[in-house]
Amino acid sequence: MTAFDRDGLIRTEDGEMSRVLRTIENVAASRATVLLLGESGTGKELLARMIHAKSPRNKARFVAINCAAVPEGLLESELFGHEKGAFTGAHQQKCGKFELASEGTILLDEISEMPMLLQAKLLRAIQEGEIERVGGRGTIRVNVRIVATSNRDLRDMVRRGQFREDLFYRLNVLPVRVPPLRERPKDIELLARYFMEMSSHRNGRAVKRIDLEAMTKLLNWSWPGNVRELENVIERAVLLSNGDVLRERDVQIDGDRLANADQNLQTSAAGLTAGMTVAQAEKALILKTLEFTEQNRTKAAQMLGISIRTLRNKLHEYGEMEVGHVG
Ligand SMILES: Nc1ncnc2c1ncn2[C@@H]1O[C@H](COP(=O)(O)OP(=O)(O)OP(=O)(O)O)[C@@H](O)[C@H]1O
Ligand SMILES: [Mg+2]
């Protein structure tokens, strides 16, 4: 490994983030469930991997599953496995993620998107250390450390009856808020330089520094996509640059477009016409918002005030509509 390889290290000079790292170090060795709360791209997965790496479980597997990305009907079998013939298409017995992670750590990403029925089964896995494969007759003992992430307010979901209260308390033993990048100006500088070095090396460039105007632009942006967005912006800047300095014009934050957010949204509102159905207007708004967030579904769902699952289902419908009725 060279100095330019991804090493999974969490770089920070921010006080709050350093506190997060200390908390993580302190609890890593225990079996305690950790709930990482933070916006998309803040480094939750990196933290989850660090918890695993610093625990006595690091010889066993770290297994991640995104509860929002797996179709609802398949989530149970993904988590807990299934027996042969349990449902159409279950040609073979299959081990679930919980079994795979046995003696190790499981990362349950976007836990808020787990259906209620499965929440009950998850609670049992946590409380009794027991799971049941889909179509299975007996229970299987598992010893898994759980790290969950959410960027929705679970307490609020409990109030609305969308999340089980008992599961919430089980998960909320050690809630850790991962601060968004815009609250960590020192990290914007540190990570911008780090990504610049990596990208410069990877692309055979000789970029060595970021000038003041460019850095000011970076510091003034709100980073809705957090560290992931910063990494992309720096990669683009390195490719656009010539010479050894990154300049303001190389830093093309989509914010040049996003800064006019209100204007953008107004433009699209003007596109609404009487005679459109509510469904058509909804589709237009969803597609517009996705364009705005550069297809970041998590962010788009937040802006639209709907769950990621709902957003995915809608997109699925639109996809089918396109296949179904051409023209
Ligand atoms: N402090 C950091 N130092 C170095 N790299 C970082 C840091 N934080 C995040 N990254 C990098 O930024 C990217 C996003 O991080 P990560 O996947 O952990 O975020 P996340 O919170 O899980 O995002 P999402 O909610 O979208 O799943 C990754 O490529 C990760 O390696
Ligand atoms: Mg993640």
Overview of the molecule:
The protein has 327 residues and is an alpha/beta fold. The chain has three domains: 15-177, Rossmann fold, CATH 3.40.50; 186-257, Helicase, Ruva Protein, domain 3, CATH 1.10.8.60; 270-324, Arc Repressor Mutant, subunit A. It contains 15 helices and nine strands. The chain has helices at residues 15-28, 44-53, 72-80, 97-100, 116-128, 154-159, 165-171, 185-202, 212-220, 226-240, 255-258, 261-270, 278-292, 297-304, 308-324; strands spanning 34-37, 62-66, 105-109, 130-131, 140-141, 145-150, 174-177, 209-210, 245-246. A five-stranded parallel β-sheet has the order 2-3-6-1-7. The chain has a two-stranded antiparallel sheet with strand order 4-5. Strands 8-9 form a two-stranded parallel sheet. Helix 12 runs antiparallel to helix 13 (278-292). The protein is globular and about 65 Å long. Residues 258-268 and 323-327 have low confidence and may be disordered. Magnesium ion is lined by residues 44-45, 109.
